[in-house]
Design a protein that fits this description.
Blueprint (H helix, E strand, L loop, with lengths): L10 H4 L2 H23 L6 H21 L7 H14 L1 H5 L15 H34 L5 H19 L7 H4 L1 H12 L6 H31 L6
Helix pairs in contact: 2-6, 3-4, 3-6, 7-10
């Protein structure tokens, strides 16, 4: 009779989450390097930059997670959260790089699909982890759990950021470099919703998708955590 579940330590459990993220990103970069070597074209090299941007909010969250004293200063915490909100859309924006799939034909479509999807996945992972840690930090600071409404609002901001990046072609730092152009373009979308109903449709659908994706992965994580506590009789 077993009184508890015995977990064997193998290669998969010997590495922590950050190490597996590095391995996963390394695989994507390996695919890209192979494509460049075989075709002789530096196509999709921009994916590396997009992946780097996807890790910026994750890095902010990790720093904040390791410097919990910042949470005691509401002004500093607010400034970091604002900075985080400006960059978190980059983690989810990378899924729109799938739009480029039909633009280049030097490699087989199945390879390019895997290549772009792997980069998109490696951008989504740190984004989801980052949102989860921000949720936990705010829950500790405020003493209240993140509601689904707040998560959806964050994802709406993400979706709006994706639209700004993909279609208006602005970046996170353009709020400093081109603030007037950025706000003018944003105002056109915000104050004329009927005229821009297709744009708002895209934002709403992406926000719902990312919310469902986040909640699903969060619940999977919680269920697996509960599974390790199961006793086998």
């Amino acid at each position: 009779m077993f009184q508890k579940l015995i977990l064997k330590r193998d290669f998969s459990t010997a590495l922590n989450m950050q190490q597996w993220l590095i391995i996963s990103c390394g695989f994507s970069c390996l695919l890209l390097s192979a494509r460049i070597i075989v075709t002789g074209y530096p196509t999709y090299l921009f994916l590396v930059w997009n992946l780097f941007l996807a890790f910026v909010p994750y890095s902010i969250t990790e720093w904040l997670w390791g410097h919990s004293w910042v949470a005691k200063n509401k002004l500093k915490l607010g400034a970091l959260l604002l900075c985080w909100l400006l960059f978190i859309p980059n983690s989810f924006y990378i899924i729109t790089d799938l739009f480029h799939l039909d633009e280049f034909d030097a490699a087989p479509k199945w390879f390019d699909l895997l290549l772009i999807f792997s980069f998109a996945w490696n951008g989504l992972l740190p984004g989801i982890i980052s949102v989860r840690k921000i949720e936990m930090i705010l829950s500790i600071v405020t003493g209240r759990r993140f509601s689904l409404v707040i998560v959806f609002i964050v994802m709406c901001l993400n979706a709006f950021g994706i639209y700004i990046g993909r279609y208006l072609r602005f970046n996170s730092w353009d709020i400093v470099m081109q603030p007037f152009s950025l706000f003018r373009e944003m105002s056109e979308v915000i104050f004329h919703p009927v005229r821009n109903r297709m744009e708002w449709g895209m934002i709403a659908v992406y926000a719902m998708f990312m919310t469902v994706l986040y909640i699903t992965i969060k619940k999977l994580s919680e269920n697996f955590s509960e599974a390790t506590k199961i006793k086998i009789k």
